[in-house]
Amino acid sequence: MCNLYAQRATQSDIRKAARVARDLAGNLPAMPAIFPDHMAPIVRGSGQDRELVMARWGFPPPSIPGSNPKNPHLTNVRNTESRYWLPWLTKPEHRCLVPVTSFAEPDNNRGPRSIWTWFAQDETRPLMFFAGIWREWEGERGPKAKRETGRHLLFSFLTTDASPDVAPVHPDATPVLLLNEAAREDWMIAPWGVARDLQKPPPAGALRVVATDMKRDD
To answer: For the domain bounded by 5-61+71-153+175-212, which CATH number is listed?
Structure first.
């Protein structure tokens, strides 16, 4: 499960790679540490309507009477057959691209504590994208020091089996990465029967470790 990532690409690079028509994200700074329930940029829409906006990371859990969810923010989508996720996955208008330059996974193999290990395409941290979904939601969200009540734009992104590069550190999962324009466009506009085939790990050699033992990829 990926619960920490960084986004250090420029707005110009994001707009170009994702074919953004409208930039509504304001002045977007480098984000060396994005945690659940924090704001981050996403790209949503298709064609002339594609826009760059800010959204909060993590869907609410399903509302089940009498339940007490352990995780208040569902940041990752693994079971794409779930009735909870399907309404968002099957509609291209609710899919999004999540810009990312590196992501962290905990390495639990090197002692009594987890070692945050950062993965990117290479040391220069090129821009890539997670395959995401978005929705609107009304309620109270945000970090404890800055809770906000009202309507929120939320996002989550897909994970899949661990890639050959990530598995030695974190054998459970890897985010679904869209590493080329064809994959990005399929995710944004293709029928679900095509888009769901993108839920697969990146090939060996696509990722490498670029930093360890820190909670920010500066």
So the answer is: 3.90.1680.10
Strand partners, 137: 152
> Global pTM?
0.94
Question: CA 92, CA 44: separation in Å to the nearest integer?
Answer: 9
- For residues 126 and 16, is the Cβ–Cβ distance under 8 A? no
Locate the domains of the chain by residue range.
Answer: 5-61+71-153+175-212
**pLDDT, tens digit (0-9, with 9 covering 90-100), for 147-181:** 888 899 999 999 999 999 999 999 999 999 999 99
Taking residue 159's Cβ as centre, other Cβ atoms within 10 Å add up to 22
Residue 166, CA distances (Å) to 106, 125, 192, 200 in order: 10, 16, 27, 13
How far from 122 is each of 77, 89, 94, 150, CA to CA, in Å? 25, 30, 30, 40
Between CA 150 and CA 155, with CA 151 as vertex, the angle to 5 degrees is 130
- Note the pLDDT tens digit of each residue in 46-97: 878 899 999 999 999 987 655 666 668 899 999 999 999 999 999 999 999 9
Residue 75's nearest CA partner among 185, 193, 173, 213 is 173
**142: which residues sit within 8 A by CB, 6+ positions away?**
37, 56, 148
pLDDT at 47: 74
Token look-up 């060396």 returns 32
Element (H, E) at 131: strand 128-141
